[in-house]
């Protein structure tokens, strides 16, 4: 399926060949591509062009990819897919903690990266939602407005965290495995994406809605299985 009109992807990598190959595959799918070779140029390009998604290498000159991502998250929720040569879990988790939507480990298949781009853009695209409000007393999850309030105060909830919370709250006490959440919320799978992605996002949600995130009462871990929401 071709991309929506004028969907712009910024490809940030200091290797010209990587930028050329990734851009060629994305161009073939109908995306408008921009390129940047370092972190400073990437931030300038975001300010100037407001891309719909960023493919961001971690190891960049001038400003590394993690720092670029942290700067972006101060003022925008633009989807970011990290490119990293680091395969250790701690490096992947760091990127997710900073707000990355996905990551791809080098060397990678351009086809796989293109599929990831499509998946992330599908997930964040505006879509018709069931006009439902989940009211759990002190915690209210408003589907139509995509707003979460806790004891009357609005909770800062980025789009993907909101989607995870709604998915769990929409089926109270049902246990979802991390693989199921990857498939049903991310539109991905454990073959492509580390299930620790789910762990990181659940941890961030708990920090915002639980009285004691280390002893959660809302989003409960079912050891060896997954997570369930307790109303």
Description:
- The relative contact order is 0.10.
- It contains 8 helices and 11 strands.
- It folds into 2 domains: 8-124, Response regulator (Rossmann fold), CATH 3.40.50.2300; 133-229, Orthogonal Bundle (Arc Repressor Mutant, subunit A).
- The protein has helices at residues 16-28, 39-49, 65-72, 89-97, 110-124, 159-169, 178-186, 196-209, and strands at 8-12, 32-36, 53-57, 80-84, 102-105, 133-136, 139-142, 147-150, 153-155, 219-222, 226-229.
- The chain starts with 7 loop residues before the first strand and ends with a strand.
- The strands form 3 sheets. The protein has a 5-stranded parallel beta sheet, sandwiched between helices. The protein has a 4-stranded antiparallel beta sheet with strand order 6-7-8-9, covered by helices on one side. A two-stranded antiparallel sheet has the order 10-11.
- The mean pLDDT is 86.
- With 231 residues, it is α/β, with parallel strands linked by helices.
- Helix 1 packs across helix 5, helix 2 (39-49) runs parallel beside helix 3 (65-72) and helix 6 packs across helix 7.
